[in-house]
Amino acid sequence: MLIWTAKFSRKKAAAAVILMGVVMAVLIILVGRVPEEPEVPLPKLTSNEERVAYLQSLGWEVEAEPIETLQFLLPPDLAEPYLSYNELQLSQGFDLTKCCGKQVARYTYAVTNYPGQPEGVQANLYICEETPAAGDVCASGAEGFQVPLIQAGE
Question: Which of 12, 36, 46, 138 is the most exposed place for a label (fewest CB within 10 A)?
Answer without folding.
Answer: 36
